[in-house]
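The following block was generated as part of the benchmark described in Methods. Ligand: 2-acetamido-2-deoxy-beta-D-glucopyranose.
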Amino acid sequence: MKMPRPTPPLLLAISLLVLAWPASCADPVLFPVSKDAATSLYSIPVRDGANHVVDLAGQLLWSTCAHDHLPAKLSCKDPVCKLADAYRAPSCRIAGRPCKKKCTAYPYNPVTGKCAAAGLIHTRLVANTTDGKNPLQQVSVRAVAACAPRNILASLPKDVTGVAGLSASGLALPAQIAANHRVANKFLLCLPRRGEGVAVFGGGPLFLQPGEAVGDLTTVLAFTALHTRKGNPLYYIPVQAIAVDQPPPVLLPAGGVVLCSRVAFTALRPDVYRPVVDAFDRGLARNDAKVDKVGPFELCYNSTMLQNTRNGYAVPEISFVFEDGKRWTFVGSNSMVHVDGQTACFAFVEMKGVKAGDPNAAAVVVGGFQMENHLLQFDLEKKQLGFAMVPSFSECSNFDFTNSQY
Ligand SMILES: *[C@@H]1O[C@H](CO)[C@@H](O)[C@H](O)[C@H]1NC(C)=O
Ligand SMILES: *[C@@H]1O[C@H](CO)[C@@H](O)[C@H](O)[C@H]1NC(C)=O
């Protein structure tokens, strides 16, 4: 079948993708974020309401192929093709063939590690703009996506048709929205524990209900550096140590700390896990309330015997300590998980298949449960991560998605 040729303006727009836009001039773009109970993955409805799993390490926007897709005919030399080609997941063996005629991308399932060779298509993201308080108006934003065979969807939530990559790569969602909707290349992420959280591309402000009490949450962000490494799609943050209430903190050896929305609970490399778990156990000092462990968690307690506060159970705080002494702190609501009606466990797990101290493995992979109900701002222009805990009387699912103008 003969496909229509892309029109020149479209081509122009795509080549502009690789150029940095100087200043923002449009309203940021809003997506609701939901959490799938079965897989603990988060997703956003990016393409005509079709849900896509968000992957902070994802390089592409990809969906299963549909008949009405408009193929993007890109030469191997096209900058967009170079972007598509730039990173191949290590588990993706079919990747690595040089581009000969047709530009090929390698969509990757972040849960199974499966990948496929796929063509690129032109598509449109349909979403509302926002002033940070409500949706404003519907917009349609051009984007380039990969169109993948259905079988690589295995193990993703049932209502999902693809993955929305949120990495710093040029074909991931933040850069595409920044280029084609002319907003700053930064995004806010407020992952929900339940209900609908919020992702905003282009930056703040952000208000959660009750609005008068919470105020613009982007004004209370603390900042640290956001690093990326060559040939590696992960976001790294320069954590020096993990503090468990009382000093001395657990110093972090080589390996780095990465943010990973597709991991349910923060995983600590064995050499980091042991001292952190032991410090938590000592700090809480509730052997009387301990019950049998419930895998993958080691420290579990009879929850009816733990003291409750507005911030979850009264347990030692876990903090990531940065170079300048700044801390990103996790209270009971982010450090204790209910495994059943009577049992709550310390929600950090030991990294599997990795040796203690292996400098090639991350020391800490920060998972979704710990990021929930924190506002995170990924500023890819300033290479900065902003972080703030949502106040206990609100939560990420308190964004007002209604708009009186509709
Ligand atoms: C935009 O917001 C309105 C009002 O809340 C809503 O009805 C509509 O579904 C939204 N559109 C998209 C694409 O999210
Ligand atoms: C938890 O503690 C409550 C109150 O002390 C007790 O009734 C219950 O049997 C305990 N449950 C377990 C699983 O130990």
